[in-house]
């Protein structure tokens, strides 16, 4: 029987934050137990907006170290760098012929990012086709991601279905897996803005590598709402609801547990406990990260092993795509 196939990707641009932990890292570590997992550092996605060439390699190694530090087991899961496996760029060209221009133009992330950039690259527009290739090349069943990737995953499913209906059953149509809580962690200073590597107030973004004092300060100054009751109500109380979700993400407790534990207590106590819980979560991760990160040769070795496995897995799908589309093969 074929094992369940899991695939996800993360960009090597900017510093990883607790939102990435919620939608990304923790879900990767959990899903690797369920089957055959592939986790890809998507460096080709990082060049779709203005990027710093000097930082790309460092960022790639940073994310590799963070993936292992947060629990990815290299003996169990495959971790690799997107640009090391050329099938991804090839498949992107093939799939761009079954991706609708209109649908790509309706992608929220494209609309948001293109509104901010002075130069809008063609790559920013076709970005979701590259993401679809990542996923589809591995005959993926499930894709653990945060809510912000939902629209891209739906597009991936549409692309797979269109390919299959034109050229015969070739691609597996994947399902997204989203966290029950913390699918969209918001900036602590601006609860209407998603926590992000590149946008929103820095003081409202909790980084995976922030020292404890910084985390405590960021939580202390987090924006809360009127009243003083720790209750989950994203419409009325976006600030405190975000902190409640963060608490569930780092402790594994349910929203109800958290609400009842803080019944009758105020925002102040709660915020300082959320800070303590985040510090406790990150305390073992940070030294593991630093140890791995100081040995780039070992990281490159692990990534080379991963790339080899990824090439072997993706190549047959790419060949089937070419064949289905009628190409004369060498
Ligand atoms: P990226 O690098 O922006 O984020 C990596 C993962 O973190 C999740 N995430 C969040 N989850 C909750 N709250 C937040 N504030 C938050 N911010 C980020 C993201 O949803 C993601 O799961 N396009 C993707 C990378 C990608 C990919 C793929 C993912 C490329 N190819 C194939 C899955 C499968 C991205 O930019 O993620």
CATH class of the largest domain: Alpha Beta
The end-to-end span amounts to 32 Å
The proportion of residues forming helix, as a percent range, comes to 40-55%
Strand content: 5-15%
Rg over CA atoms, rounded to whole Å, is: 20 Å
Mass-distribution shape: globular
Count of separate DSSP helical elements: 12
Low-confidence runs: none
Largest sheet entry: 3 strands, parallel
Strand-pairing-aware structural class: mainly alpha
Small ligands present:
tryptophanyl-5'AMP
The CATH superfamily of the largest domain is HUPs
- How many β strands by DSSP? 5
Overall structural domain count: 2
The helix/strand series, from N terminus to C terminus, equals EHEHEHHHHEHEHHHHH
User: What is the CATH-assigned architecture of the largest domain?
Assistant: 3-Layer(aba) Sandwich
CATH topology of the largest domain: Rossmann fold
Strands in their spatial order, largest beta sheet: 1-2-3
Summed over residues and divided by their number, the pLDDT gives a mean of 97
